[in-house]
Structures are given as structure tokens and as C-alpha cells.
Amino acid sequence: MNKTVLIIITVVLFAKVPINLFAYNSDSLLQVLDTAGEIHKAKIYNLLASDLWRDAPRKSIEYAGKALLLAKKYNLPLEEYYAYYNLSSSYGGNDTLNYSVHYAQKALEVAKKINDSLLIARAYFGLGTVYNGKDDYEKALENLLMSYKIVQDIYKNDTVANTQRLAFIANNVGIVYNRLGNADKALEYYNKSLNLKSRLNDSLAVANALNNIGLIYSNKREFEKARKYYEKSLEIKKKFKDKFVIAETEYNIFELLILENKYKEALDFYNVMESNFTILDARTQLLLLNSLASIYIKLNKLNKADSVLREAIRLALKTGARKPLANSYQLLSEYYAKTGSYKKAFEYQSKYIHLNDSLLNSEMISKISEVNAKYETEKKEKQIALLQRDKLKTDAALNKQKIVKLYYAIASIIILVSSVLIILIIWYRQKRKSEKLLTKSIETEQRLLRSQMNPHFIYNTLNSVQGFISAKNDFMAMKFLSKFGTLLRNILENSRHNLVPLNEEIDTLKLYIDMEHLRKKDAFDYKIDISDDIDTEFVLVPPLIIQPFVENAIKHGFRNLNRKGELLICIKKENEQLIVEISDNGMGRDKALLEKSINGEKRKSLGMELTSERISLLKKVHAKEASFSVFDLKDDDGNATGTKVVINLPFISV
Questions:
Q1: Reduced to 3 DSSP states, what percent helix, strand and coil does the chain have, rounded to the nearest 5?
Q2: What DSSP string runs through 545-566?
């Protein structure tokens, strides 16, 4: 729901008396303004501000400022409240949200002085809406829940107006819970909203509620339920023939198909619905273009991916949408990597990292801007007072004296705040510099370890190839070499990165195990089990972090085994940790060490040593738990039945 519609509905739902928004307009109000007394002018200015904030926000701010001055002069608290509320609405653009917060808080203060419950509920709702626009979801939720509680507790009579208010607030509470990642709470409030809207027989509102519930189930990866709610929503919306609301749900269906990895079906759906999607807001179109580009990359339609990403970047730069722009850079890096243009891939990966880092600092910058805005808003209010000095026939000399004092006060505050900010900026830069030096040192050490790891791994693999060639098994040698070529390419590509997607690590691991499976002539079986709550494309791990443990199990655990080997690899998430369990039914560590001693093998496993060091460095970089443990598996009689390795890695997602 866009912001214009949201605020119009807010005004209607929280009105103390029935309001016909179209019973007046700015022209008719201006006609009576000159003949009205000053007390009535305050009300007229507020009506003008309310009428113009969407199409002429600057003019709305001017009228709201005039209403505010008259309200304060003649002690009109209700008009003062509406003036602050109108100022908050008019400053609701992306660049002035800090001012919007300031005036919404002022409106809440006045509502509490008036002690009017409905006005207080409306003020809390307005403040929650603004914080939601600022992506400050914790504060947004706090204020929206206050609004919901007041309306629920005080207006217990089951009127149409009260039902509309509760349904509207519950829906917005659900939106914020969803953005905070609390799917169960979001679903609870969406269902509350749906039940209330169903009682009102408001079909379009019901359709929007069904659409929101579908989003929750999509996020919970319960795709069949999500599709069911989307289809119900779309069926209702098509009866209204409103292309915008129809396109909203169609876009959600498109994203659902991508989540289900139904890329060709998603592409066919997009080609049919493309004309509808052009009326979506700019941010949604950006998300759509990035999703479309990711499909083209996965389907190797690289020329189309290039043109779509260029359009996405152009739109992102035009609208200032930084997060979608970062995603576009990341996708363009993947595109160039697939085309073999590694220099370009590196260039756009660097742009992505730089922009992503700047987004991480946005919260701190926003806090500084909010402090600045508090002083600037006071200054703007006095500037409005100066512009209206003659018309309001105030004492010129008294106003001048007040303004001089205010300027001295503001100047002192600005000097103080500037000094504090300069100190904070210097401190922050020094801290960042130290952190970068430490990170660079650790990353250099990691690269050295990987440079040792890759030759070790390749050497072991070449030994396997040599075995087939020596046995003159040409077919198996060719099959083995084909897999080895793919494996070698994966190793070389992944070795350029500190972290790689889990799905790429699994693909490389499978290639290695398949090669060992061929070499050992089906002497063992293996299974890789990944928990459903892990999206392997968006979880990052160090490259070749699992392989040495698997190699150890196959090379030592299954050697001279009188039964068929079984290898089980389980990957799951626990308490923000990625847990990898590698279990085998081999001879166990004690017997393996004994056989090594008998055979005169004294060399330690280089792969295990390097992996141990890499895990220690990973713990330093991310300041999170990273370790591995080895356990002997035994039966009830104490006989060895195998070995289990548990690797604990930080859960890192993109």
C-alpha cells in the first residue's frame, strides 16, 4: 500500500466526526479565508494543509505553519494537534523523515495534554507509520501496538468505524512484524485483520489481507499454502479491474515461483504479465528486475541478463534505492564471471562490497541526522514566525529580541554539536582504520593457507587419476578426468574468495566423493542431508572446509574395511551456527593409527592441519564460535563402529 493511500485512510479512520474528504477543496477554502476571523483561520489553514500535502507539500507546510502560530496564539490545542500532524505528513518524503518524526512526536504530546484517547491512538499510529518509513521497525512496532491497544480497550463497542480501525492497525502491525522476521506474530495479526475485514464485507481489503498472509507463508517456505492465498487474493482483485492491486499479487506469485526454483515457469509468467508490472512503484520494479536477471543468469541467457541489469542499475541510480543497487552490482558480477570477464566481475563485486559497507553505516548516519534535524526544525518554526509577523500583527520589537536570543542559542548548540560530531567522526575513522588493518592481516593469512590447501588437494586427486591410467581402464580414466576437470575449475574459481555459497561448496564436495567412489569401485555409499531451513544459495562458507574431513574418512576410515562403507554428511543450523556432521562406519581412529604405524606412515595429514588453522582464523575474523571435534563411535560392547566429526561454523548469510 503506498504512502498516499495510507495517510488518507488514517485520517478517515481516526476522525472524531464523519468526514467527507471531497466536501471542500483548496479553492473553496481560500475564498472564505479573507473574511474569516483569526480563530477560524487556524481551522481553515489546517484544512488547506490537509488538502494539499500530497500534491503540494511545500504549500501544505506553509499553511500548517500558519495554523500552528494561530493555534498557539489563541490557545487552540485541537488545531495545534492537527497542525503538527499535517506537518508530519507533509515532511513524509524520504529526505525529510527526521522532520516527520519530530512533528509526529509533537502531535502526540498535544494529544496527551488534550487527553483525547482517539487523538492519542491516531498520533501513535502516525508515529509508527513514520518509523516504518525510516526502516526503524522496533519503534514502529512499539507505537502501532500502543495505537491498537488504545482502540481495542476504549472503543469496545462493535461499531463499523471501530472494526475498520482495528482491522487497519492490525494489518500494519502484521507488516512490521514481518519486516522484523517474526513470521508467527505477523501471521497472527494478518489473520485478525482478515477476520475483521470479512465482517465488514470489504472485498478489496479482504484480498489485500489474503495477499499479506500469502507473503508470510512464502517466507516460511510453505509454498502450497502461499499459492492458495495468492490465488484467492487475485481472484477477488480481478473483479475490481484495478491493474495496480492486481499487479501487486501477480508480482508475489512471480517471486514465489523463483523461491520454488521454477525458473522457466517464472519466466513464462513474467512474459505474460510484463505489461501489468510496469505500473508498480519504482522500488518493486527494481526488485522485479533483479529477480528477472537472476533467472536469466541461472538459465544461461546472459545477453538478456545484461540488458535487464543495466536497466535495474539505471532505475536504482535515478531513484536512489541503494540496497537494490547493491544487489544489481552483485548480479552483474556473477554475469561477468559466467562470461569469463573476471576483471569486470571483480570491478562490480568491489562496487557491491563498497555499497554494502556504506549501507551498514547508514543507521549511525541517520542518528546523527536526527539530532541535527531537531535543531533545524526549531529554526524553521521561527522562520515561519518571521514570515507571518506582519499579518499576525505581533509586537515587532519583541519578536526581534526573541529571534536574536534564539539565534545565539542555536549557534551555541550548533558549535557544541559540531564539536562532538567531529570528535566522534575522528574516533570512528581511527577505529575503522584499525579494524581494516586487522582484517587485512587475517585475510592475507587465509590466502596463504588456501594457497597451500589447493596444491595438496589437487595432488591427492591426481594420484587417483594415475591409478586408472596405470590399470589401462581408458573409459574410467576419461570419465574420471572429465570430473577432475570440472572439480579443478571449481577449486580455482572458489580459491579466489574467502567465502563461497554453500551450494557451490556442496557441488565441489560431491564431485570429489564421486571421483573417490569411482576409484574405489563402489566400496562405499554416501548421503548428503541438508536441513530445510537452510537456503544454500545464500549461506556462505570457506571453500574446501568440509573436504579434508571427508577425505580422512574415505582414505583411512574405509581402508581394508570388511564391509561396505557408509558416509553420511548432515548440515543444519543451530543458534546462529552452521553445524556440519560427517559420520562414517569405518574402522575408527585407534585401528587407523595402528595400521598407519604398521605400514610405517609417519606423515601427518596436511589437509587436516591447514583446515584446523583456517577454522581458527575464521573465528578471529567473525568473532563467533568456529571449531571442530572428532568422536569415536562404538557399539554396546565398546567395539569401534566408525568416526563422527562435528564442525561448528558461523552462520553467514547474504
A1: 75, 10, 20
A2: SSHHHHHHIIIIISTT-SS-EE
- Residue 2 pLDDT more than 60? no
Q: Give the SS3 label for residue 233.
A: helix
Give the mean pLDDT of the chain: 78
Rounded Cα–Cα distance for residues 50 and 79 (Å): 12
> 3-class SS at 321?
coil
Whether 197 has a pLDDT exceeding 80, the answer reads: yes
454 and 381 housed in the same domain = no
Answer yes or no: do 425 and 530 share one domain: no
CATH of the domain at 573: 3.30.565.10
Q: Reduce the secondary structure of 150-187 to three states and give it as a string.
A: HHHHHCCCCCHHHHHHHHHHHHHHHHHHHHCCCHHHHH
CB-count exposure of residue 473 (10 Å: 0-12, 13-18, 19+) = middle
Beta 524-530 vs 565-574: how paired, if at all?
Answer: parallel
Complete edge-to-edge strand list for the sheet that includes strand 500-501: 500-501, 539-541, 652-653
Q: Tell me the C-alpha distance between 134 and 137, whole Å.
A: 8
Helix (H, G, I), strand (E, B) or coil at 581: strand
Count of domains for the chain: 3
Q: Which of 290, 293, 226 is CA-nearest to residue 257?
A: 226
For residues 195 and 347, what is the distance between their CA atoms, to the nearest angstrom? 51
Residue 258 grid coordinates: 523463483
C-alpha grid cell for residue 3? 504512502
- Residue scoring higher pLDDT (573 or 26): 573
Position 533 in a domain: yes
Task: Report if pTM > 0.70.
Answer: no
How far is Cα 464 from Cα 484, in angstroms, rounded to an integer? 10
More confident residue, 120 or 485: 120
> Higher pLDDT residue, 146 or 515?
146
Find all residues with CB under 8 Å of 472, minimum gap 6, and list them. Answer: none
Distance, in Å, from the CA atom of 478 to the CA atom of 149, rounded to the nearest integer, reads 71
| Inter-CA distances, 424 with 359, 370, 414, 417, 511, Å | 19, 16, 15, 10, 52
Percent of the chain with pLDDT over 90: 15
Single-letter amino acid code for the residue at 201: N
**pLDDT-based confidence at residue 224 (cuts at 50, 70, 90):** very high
Q: Buried b vs exposed e over 608-643: b needs ≥16 C-beta within 10 Å?
A: bebbebbbebbbebeeeebebeeeeeeeeeeebebb
Which residue segment(s) compose the domain that 384 sits in?
369-430
